[in-house]
Amino acid sequence: MTDRKRRNVLVEGEKLRGADKVRRIPVKVIPTTEILSKPDWIRIKIPTSAKINHIKQTLRQHKLASVCEEASCPNLGECFSNGTATFMIMGEICTRRCPFCDVAHGKPKPLNENEPTELASAIREMGLKYVVITSVDRDDLKDSGAQHFAHCISETRRLNPTTQVEVLVPDFRGRMQIALDILKHTPPDVFNHNLETIPRLYKQARPGADYQWSLDLLKAYKACRPDVITKSGLMLGLGESIEEVKQVLNDLYEHNIDMVTLGQYLQPSKDHLRVERFVHPDEFNALREYGEALGFAHIASGPLVRSSYHADKQAHGEKIQNS
User: Fold this and answer.
1) Distance (Å, rounded) from C-alpha 210 to C-alpha 193?
2) CA of 233: how far to CAs of 64, 215, 218, 219, in Å?
3) Rounded distance between C-alpha atoms, residue 163 and residue 288, angstroms
4) For residue 194, what is the DSSP state?
5) Helix, strand, coil shares of the chain as percentages rounded to 5?
6) How far is residue 290 from each of residues 234, 241, 261, measured CA to CA in Å?
7) pLDDT tens-digit map of 262-320
8) Which residue of 83, 167, 170, 217 has the lowest C-beta tally within 10 Å?
9) Which helix (H) or strand (E) holds 217?
10) Is residue 310 within 8 Å of residue 300, measured between CB atoms?
11) pTM, to two decimals
């Protein structure tokens, strides 16, 4: 370890991953010596195709990042093959150190003012009809990036008037009202913010975040834009009980969230939070039925379901079969 890393001195643009990323979080992550073997229902094949290569080339050409690549999503091959992608704006370096996430931590570079136009142009070149725009956490910005989200939504709609837009936003920690004042004037079709896990595991999995704050953000946006679909998601397998997941579903419903996604947590490396167990597809199905009985407009629940997986079908009320 270098003296600079020991002193936790961040260099702008340098990506910290693995042990370097999680070294200073509240709950120490013990490196996993033996990673659990994946059951048959979680195994996937990563295909290659001309369409996948074309999307990657378009992203590079416009200097864009996709969360599909940066977060090592297991559905990258399927989504890219179907001509869909989730774009990650505001750089590839996050100001948070969440130990479940494979996105790098560090000191981000200044925002690229041309990114909204580059994003909209790439979407047009790909011919996408439904896009998800997400971001790293940018706690270094006065509005946590809300205005940049607004610019990206506006430019996407200007160059792609028939394309539907979903945003997967950070929690805008300490700046909720600023973000709401900005984004209520530039509404997406779907406003998504993930709770990620149960409240008991927040200190361990989401250091710097607050469960109630995230719930309040979703409810507040729905209150100021009742015409916009609200959405949230959880990853399972971190040590939560099924009853705790059901309580979160109740909390989400009581805070006027329309759509929910439930998927299996997959450990990116030995230095990330370990997988405590692989949740069986039958349990995911039971949780989907529980959510449907509560009254959610749509709930996608399965081992490989991710927040952005088949987001277009979710928004249109189609059931997602992913087990």
Assistant:
1) 13
2) 24, 11, 12, 15
3) 28
4) -
5) 35, 15, 50
6) 15, 15, 13
7) 999 999 889 999 999 999 999 999 999 999 999 999 999 999 898 776 677 777 776 65
8) 83
9) helix 211-224
10) yes
11) 0.90
